[in-house]
Amino acid sequence: PVWQSRQYLASSARACGSGSVGADRATRTMTGACVVGRLTAPTTHAPVIERVALSAPTEPDPQVLALLARYCLDCHTGDTAEEGVRFDQVHKGDDLDRALLGRMRKMISWEVMPPEEPLPTPDERAALLAWIDDALGAGESGGAIDPGWFTIHRLNRAEYRNTIRDLLGVDPTEHDLSAQLPPDDIGYGFDNIADVLSMSTLQLEAFLDAAERAVELGLGPEVELGDKVRFLRPLSREGNGRPLSRGGHMLYSRGAVGVIHDFPLTGMYELRLRAWANQGGDEYARMRVRLDGKELDTFSVKSEKSGEPDELSLRVRVEAGRHEVSGAFINDFYIPDVADRNLAIVAIGVAGPLGEEGLERPAAFETVFFSRPGGGTPEIVAATEVIERFASRAYRRPVTESELDRLLGLYDALRTDGDTHERSVRTVLEAILVSPSFLYRSVANAAPDNPDRTHELSDHELASRLSYFLWSTMPDEELRRAADLGQLRHEPTLLAQVRRMLADPRSEAFIENFAGQWLLLRNLEDLRIDPERYPSYDAQLRGDMVAEATRFFADIVRSDRSVLDLIDSDDAFLNERLARHYGIEGIEGDQLRRVQLDEASVRGGVMTTGAVLTVTSNPTRTSPVKRGLWVLDQLLGTPPPPPPPDIPPLVKSQETVGEDASLREQLAAHVSEATCRACHRRMDPIGLAMENFDAIGRWRTEAYGGPIDAHGELPGGVVFTGPVELKRILLARDAQFVENLCGRVLTYALGRGLEDFDQPTLDRITARVRDSGDRFGALIEGVVLSEAFRSCRARSD
Known about the structure:
Layout: H1 6-15, E1 38-40, E2 48-50, H2 62-71, E3 91-92, E4 95-96, H3 98-109, H4 122-136, E5 153-154, H5 157-168, H6 201-219, E6 229-232, E7 236-238, E8 241-243, E9 249-251, E10 255-263, E11 267-278, E12 285-291, E13 294-301, E14 310-318, E15 321-329, E16 333-335, E17 339-351, H7 363-368, H8 379-395, H9 401-416, H10 421-433, H11 436-439, E18 440-441, E19 454-456, H12 459-470, H13 477-484, H14 491-503, H15 508-518, H16 539-558, E20 571-574, H17 576-582, E21 593-596, H18 610-615, H19 624-635, H20 654-657, H21 663-670, H22 674-688, E22 702-703, E23 706-707, E24 711-714, E25 718-721, H23 722-732, H24 734-750, H25 759-771, H26 776-785, H27 787-790, E26 791-793
Antiparallel strand pairs: 1-2, 3-4, 5-18, 6-17, 7-10, 8-9, 9-17, 10-15, 11-14, 11-17, 12-13, 12-15, 16-17, 19-26, 20-21, 22-23, 24-25
């Protein structure tokens, strides 16, 4: 068995002139291979160090052995390794744990580790990073880039909603078809990760129902044009009278009877009423026709025979929807035992829509049914043209001949079964909307089983990936035209499209979906803040908070500002309600607008927005742990591992320090446990620095019966007080923040989690952003121009 001890590591370090590891811990026994070398049982009194073959056959630099022995191995070996990170497990059999090495690289390069004195010098960090890059095969920045794989990607609910909107014109604010779909799973912080977007039987049924509803809503109801009338027996009645034995009503005095009818579309209709009368006096019975109580016309009813009623009609333009058509008896006449005039209304009918002229159909109907039978155009020709265009738009690429043949085969079968031309075409459209080619995004990789062969995305595949990245929807006409012409893969055209799309209002989808998940704004909806403790917090204030953070992020994107403004800025987007909540004067009205902050303001950046401060709180109080975790994870990308299952909750600490203890005192008691200390020493100082903000983001100076202590000390002896100084510390780690943000955007754009082989891609994107002055536009362009975005390979085992 392979073994080693701290004495051997210490002797190696001293031999390399890098000092002693120290002797404050008991000797550890390790199994497996060390990160940098393999120590075997010595045949002499001196240890024998063998190089663990990583990716390069070169001999190790003795300095690397000494540096890791001095700064890392004392805490990260054995079963008691800090945060469960064991460098002695970097080599598992013949396989290299590249994910662990990648994490090592991030911690060292971002100066998160080692957390305490002694700390490596810049040159020592560079030596460690060079060794890790060599091990990962990432040392050659100009070498070939591994683009990674493309997993077949089901549309998530937001993408489905937006695609149906652009394909069929269904307004999601009125008819959100995605609401009936099961919720999407989350992976790597986002709901557009292909690996977790599965398809169950329940989901398939929901997509079927949604497809039928989408076609009806988008194209309007199917109608039969012409003057074929549908008679209904009157149901409603006002006034004196009685039902007739064969249907209808006899009105003895002034009154009315009517029917309720659903008019499918706005257009011209014909209203027909059948009536007869008991005549009396010197004039015929008079009947007034009404629509929703509004008088349209008046007729004389001359027939006195129940079997031969008069049929009276008029044409009128009616708005789509449910309306009441009624006939009213308006000239009652009665002399006892002499004359009694009565009106019998037998049936009320509606014909129409009478024709296309003046008919208001949804805009999508004209777009979809651009070709119709008649005028020399056979039904099959019109059907082919309609189905081919719709399928090509829905599939986000030209439909193939075999696909078109199958769709037309369905059309022919429906017509043979007796369906009308329009009904048959509509059914085919519904079939398209449940086709995998619509519900999934995929690529036509010619070598789907060969991970060594790279597939360059076609123009249409690239257009689809780009549109779902920036718009969460299908490509528009201009993007499709560039793909049809084979121009989209040309870098100038691609960049021009990116800039156009970011300026388009549809880029709001990227802002809401990316920022809403990265900043955890979506979680605010599910957080139930205690209304007794915080009565001013309501749905309106919550909406303002989310809008503030979203508008600020949108301005970063659309104004191409520095991404570092997300950490701290001299402006915010406020309205009167939010400004009053924050204690800022001089803002009036409900409209959010850019507000220049005072130099002494504690606001600025996303971290101090009400939405972030609230979503990182508990329902009844603040949570320094949640706020610290949010900064470490969302901003810096270095979250601690999940806590062990047996860790006691914070409330248990009250048993030690008392119920009146401050959160700082409770946390101090909590982290006295060794299993808690490793993670909390990074999170808690950050969260405690924001304790001046209460659970709904208001500024305060006292809590728990005394003044708030907002000082903190991070590992490494970095001392600070309050949110302003905390933001300065974060800005000092700007490289770490920028790389993390680039990685988040790349993850969202690719729809997959980043792997260790993505580091060179991420390095290039980050370098582009830094060279631009940290502009957000450079981030988007760097992602879109990357090999990972424009190409892919098969997935390796």
